[in-house]
Amino acid sequence: VSEAVRQYANVELVLTDGVEYLRRFSGKIDLLYLDFWVPDPEGAIPGTGRAEAYREAFNAAQDKMNTHSIILIDDTDHIHPWKHTYIIPLAREHGYTVMFTGRQTLLKR
């Protein structure tokens, strides 16, 4: 990846836990793109681990989101619970509107 982005001086590569990064991030977020994988807890309904992790990521980022911002969640064309299951209701509470849902889900505020 570093070779692919070398030409872009404004790109900073960070290798860390994404949720922890969001918790520590001090700037404002215009676009929150969520596409990561976590395992389900043993014995849980498939997808539960991802749904909970994505909710955790949204919670870590939500107070840093700009007034006018976008959330894009990848791989949302699965049965519930899945990546977007818990985020969409929370995002709506924070003024987001679902613009598109399918392979990806796009929310804007």
Kindly provide the radius of gyration, computed on alpha-carbon positions and rounded to a whole number of angstroms. Answer: 15 Å
Cα separation of the termini: 31 Å
Helix-strand makeup class:
alpha+beta
Calculate the mean pLDDT score and round it: 94
Task: Give unreliable regions as ranges.
Answer: none
Principal-axes geometry comes out as: globular
Biggest β-sheet, characterized? 4 strands, mixed
The strands making up the biggest β-sheet line up spatially as 1-2-4-3
Give the fraction of residues assigned to helices: 25-40%
DSSP strand (E) fraction? 15-25%
Order of helices and strands: HHEHEHEE
Describe the structure.
The structure is a single chain. The chain is an alpha+beta fold. The chain is about 30% helix and about 25% strand. The chain contains 4 helices and 4 strands. The model has no long low-confidence stretch (mean pLDDT about 95).
Considering the chains and any ligands shown, give keywords for the structure.
109 residues; globular; 4 strands; alpha+beta; 29% helix; single chain
Short note summarizing the structure:
The protein is of the alpha+beta class. It has helices at 2-5, 18-24, 48-61, 87-93; strands at residues 29-34, 65-74, 97-101, 104-108.
Map the helices and strands.
Blueprint: H1 2-5, H2 18-24, E1 29-34, H3 48-61, E2 65-74, H4 87-93, E3 97-101, E4 104-108
Parallel strand pairs: 1-2
Antiparallel strand pairs: 2-4, 3-4
